[in-house]
Design brief:
about 190 residues, alpha+beta, 4 helices, 6 strands
Length: about 190
C-alpha cells in the first residue's frame, strides 16, 4: 500500500513540476483576468459620454428657450408651449420623455429685488405665484431690469450598465436653468399666464 501511495505522490509531484514549467495558455489566463476590468472601463466611458452629451444638450436647450422667449414683447401660453418642441429638437436623437420645463418672467425693481412677473409650467399652469421674491445671480440684479428664467429637468437612464437591473436603477435627473436679460427696455408680458 505504501508503494502505491508513493507512486501516486510521485506522479502528482511530476505533474505539478510539469505544470509549473508549462507556459502555454498564460496569455489566455491573463486575458480572462483583465477582460472584466476592460469591459467595465469601456461601459463606464460610454455611459459618461452619453451622460455628458445629455447634460450639454440640457444646457443648450435651456439657453435657447430663454433666448427665444426674451425676443418678443408679449408671449402667451400657446407660444410658451412651443418651447417643448424647441427642447425636443435640441435633444434629438435622445428621448425627452419625462422632461419638465418652466419659464418665468422676472421683474427687478428699483431696489434690485427680483419678483416673478409671470410664470408658465409645461402642464399649462403657473410654475410660481406672481409677486414671489426669487434669488437671481448678482450680475443680473440691475434696477428696473427684466429677465427670462428657463428651467429644464430631464431624467437620464443608464443605457448599458447593468441593463438587467434597469427597472430597479433610479434615473439620474439632469437639471439646468438659464437666465437671459431682456433685449429691450420694456418688460415682456404674458397675456394668459
Amino acid at each position: 500500500m505504501m508503494t502505491r501511495s508513493k507512486k501516486m505522490l510521485s506522479a502528482l509531484g511530476r505533474t505539478l513540476k510539469r505544470l509549473k514549467g508549462d507556459r502555454q495558455g498564460l496569455g489566455a489566463v491573463e486575458f480572462a483576468i483583465i477582460f472584466p476590468i476592460l469591459l467595465s472601463l469601456y461601459i463606464t466611458a460610454f455611459e459618461l459620454t452619453i451622460g455628458f452629451s445629455v447634460y450639454k444638450r440640457a444646457t443648450r436647450a435651456a439657453g435657447a428657450i430663454a433666448d427665444l422667449v426674451s425676443q418678443p414683447q408679449t408671449v402667451n401660453k400657446a407660444y410658451l408651449a412651443t418651447m417643448t418642441d424647441v427642447a425636443s429638437a435640441v435633444f434629438a436623437p435622445y428621448q425627452t420623455t419625462g422632461m419638465t420645463l418652466k419659464i418665468s418672467g422676472i421683474q427687478i425693481d428699483a431696489n434690485k429685488v427680483a419678483r416673478i412677473a409671470w410664470s408658465w409650467e409645461q402642464s399649462g399652469k403657473p410654475a410660481y405665484n406672481e409677486g414671489t421674491i426669487v434669488n437671481i445671480p448678482n450680475n443680473f440684479k440691475q434696477a428696473n431690469g427684466f429677465i427670462i428664467h428657463s428651467e429644464l429637468t430631464i431624467p437620464h437612464s443608464l443605457l448599458m450598465f447593468m441593463s438587467s437591473l434597469s427597472s430597479t436603477i433610479t434615473p439620474i435627473t439632469i437639471s439646468r436653468d438659464y437666465y437671459f436679460a431682456k433685449r429691450e427696455a420694456d418688460p415682456i408680458t404674458c397675456g394668459d399666464c
